[in-house]
Design goal:
Elements lengths: L1 E3 L5 H9 L7 E8 L3 E2 L2 E2 L2 E6 L3 H16 L4 E7 L1 E3 L4 E9 L2 H18 L2 E7 L2 E4 L4 H8 L3
Helix pairs in contact: 2-3, 3-4
Length: 147
Amino acid sequence: MSVQADDFDVGAEIIALSAGRTDIGAVVTFTGLVRDMAGGKPISDMELEHYPGMTEKALEKIEAEANARWDLQASRIIHRYGKLTPGAQIVLVATASPHRGDAFEAAEFIMDFLKSRAPFWKKEGTADGGKWVDARDADEDALNRWS
């Protein structure tokens, strides 16, 4: 698990996750990117803020919960912070399991919790200035299915 300003290499992360492992039958990844539009309006950038220490603990808890619920051999979460431009990578979730079902479900679970419970704050840069992003009902609905 990493919270970092620097970009990441998805391919290198997959290799590192599965290197030397013969007990892994599936690796599922999700990579979130900065869009150039939000709410029908163009955005120039997205700024992500977090509380160091608290954020890492929250991500560790999410990852531990996924590992407890599904048969995972390995997992990796990377979440960036700072000012990012459209097309930039924001988040990587990778899960590795003997079987694809566990890997897919665990990755989706982790993303649903990251969207709703991870302590990140996002501000979109627009022609009208910066606008903080509010939580979406759809993200909360997605999270509720794991209860």
